[in-house]
Amino acid sequence: MSLARYLLFKYLRFDKEQPFINLSMLLAFLGVCVGLCVLLVAMAIMNGFDKEFQKRFFVMNYPITILPKFYAPVDDEFVAELKREFPHLLFSPYLSTQVIARSDNRFEGGVIFGVNFEEEKKINEVVKNALKDTNLSSYDIVIGEVLAEEFRLKKNDKLSLIFSNLNPSGFSLTPTTKRFDVKAKFNSGLIFYDKAYMYVDAKALRKVLGVKEGYDGVHIYSENAFKDIEKLKAYLGQDYAAIGWWEQNQNFFSALELEKRALFIVLMLIILVAGLNIISSLLMIVMNRRSEIALLLALGASRAEIKKSFFALGMLIGGSGMVCGVILAFLTLWFLGNYNIVSLPADVYGTSKLPLDLSILDFILTLVGALFIIALSSFYPAKKATEVNILDTLRNE
Quick one: pLDDT at residue 266? Predict the structure, then answer.
């Protein structure tokens, strides 16, 4: 151990005759440091966006939705039965249909939901915030801020909606048109929902659609949707379908996960390039110190000690780069989290602040991957150092 330690610190010293060796070691150190920092920051940003999008989709899509199959009934009796069987869940039955909003010469397509607002406010934080100080009557409507701004609607203004169901009029059929009173507007943080979603009382929507009773489905709030959806599926059987919010947006989140993995692999190449610098610098030391290595082996030093000293040198260069990279990454994340350096369009991303969230799993995987590359880069030069031919080297020297 004393010989390995002596050689380690000896080869770390600046060599005036071969300054390029120390420059290569410095570049390897900086490569590992910067590469690890960039990788950790990129993973934190990707996780931040992933969770931010999940949060937004979760709010407007609901954790679980029950839909009927084969014309199975969804009525107040069915909802009451679900409440008895699953008292820890919150239920909000709904009607929905596509409509066209009309204002002067402007038209916008959208989706209108007929709900019981008292039940809906328990599971939808966006609607709850919009109706803090508002009491709704039968033909009042809640719309998104984007739609209200485009149509220049204020509180108590009229909004005309064109429905898909047709009414006989003379010798033709005309779509049903109904005017609602705008009483509140919500802001979900995503422009699509704020432009397309509208909420009215379920009884009022039934009258417009000519439906006597029943609902199109039931929205459910659950603290543990992944477990509760299995219980619901087992209870409902084949007549109803229980769909989780992650299933409704599966392609989108799969694309985010694929992008995250691809980014991890690409940025890991930075550390791989730094590993090549470690190999080149150690090989240059081996070639430059061949006579010293041969002499040490001739005087009784074991090949294991020589291998250990060069392996420790590579690990020290890469390990110190990893430590500095982790420190630099956390300083960067702290700086980005506390100072609004990067400003995002809130209507696109749902937030104006750069979301950051470095998970423990990504942190560990990054460190393990970097450590594996550094160890592999240190092993080959250390092995080559033990293959020095003692007799040929000393004879030539």
Answer: 83
